[in-house]
Amino acid sequence: MKYLSAILLLLLPVCIYGQGQQVSLLFVGDLMQHQAQIDAAHRADGTYDYSHCFSLVKDDIGRADIAIGNLEVTLGGKPYRGYPQFSAPDEYLEALKDAGFDILATANNHSLDRHKRGLERTLTLADSLGIPTVGTYRDAADRAARYPLIVEKNGVRIALLCATYGTNGIATTPPNIVNSLDRNELAADIHTARSMKADAIIAIVHWGNEYHRHPDTLQRDLARWLIDQGVDHVIGSHPHVVQPIELIPHTDYATRHAVIYSLGNYVSNMSIPHSTVGLAVELTIEKMCHATRLKSFNYRLVWTERAALSRKGDFRIVPEDTVPEDIAPEARQHMQQAIKVERELLDAASCKK
Question: How many CA atoms lie within 13 A of 330 on its CB side?
Fold first, then answer.
């Protein structure tokens, strides 16, 4: 993937064992399914086709060792509905698998949109496709067996945590569990991750205020608390718009903690200002000399071409440095302006040390 941002290189003393073991992780924002998206994917034979949606980003997703997205819908079955209580077609999950996503975060404010059936059916379908999920569980035994989610790739062992500020006022039906941003619970989970000999811990958190382009005090305080407790990197979602990035120095050795306050939307039908652009963030983590560091950090902006602007009447995720030949002039203008505004935000406020 060709990223437009500068690459952060953080050098450690050369290890006598040579180059360290490395893993690249790609994080993208909210994977939404509003009614217009469902309608656009519907075909005459009753099936749903999302291949056009991911056609321009599939190679980028597949290039990462581990690709992770925030699944902000349930797969609760028919009737399929968009906002305010989402239930996406089963084909949407199949499309995410085909696009290259390896893991889906499921703890967010829409986790319980279809209550117990929606939570459990989402997990069952993900299991059937071999897609690990993190953040929601059928019961305590399910959570104990699968959380923290440990992913080992290229000799690097990553622990993923995932939790949400709430579920839109819908109570969890026992024995189901949706991880919450409770500090006692988070501290226990971080301790468990360390006991599982994780080389790095990454917390995926659903937090903040919708449509606010800057993190609030609660986000900043929680991010620093998580890092103080032993989390290495923090990946945020929920505001549906891009928020700045911080790289916080580690106290012991030459590395940084990446805090992405909000990835924004990866794909949606939102059209309010700033909601059509999202972040694709790649972290390369290296294990060397018995220490783990953030070797490189890259990000790329993406824009959602909505059906209202598309000649094909469909949705498509367009990377910032890609101008499809078949894009309509009006859509091109919308994209260029939206990307410019978010690029200015990131250039001005991100990567603070």
Answer: 6
Look at residue 16 and tell me if it is in a domain: no
Q: How many domains in the chain?
A: 1
DSSP 34-69: -HHHHHHHB-TTS-B--TTTTTTTHHHHHHSSEEEE
CA pair distance 160, 202, nearest whole angstrom:
5
Tell me, yes or no, whether 14 lies in a domain. Answer: no
CATH value at residue 210: 3.60.21
Q: Taking the model in full, what pTM does it have?
A: 0.92
Tell me: the pLDDT tens digits for 169-223? 999 999 999 999 999 999 999 999 999 999 999 999 999 999 999 999 999 999 9
Q: Is residue 3 part of a domain?
A: no
Distance from C-alpha of 241 to C-alpha of 224, rounded to nearest angstrom: 21
Tell the residue number behind the tokens 């909000």, with chain if given. 262
C-alpha span between 223 and 229 (Å, rounded): 10
Q: How far apart are CA 276 and CA 32, in angstroms?
A: 12
| Cα 81 to Cα 92: distance, rounded to the nearest angstrom | 13
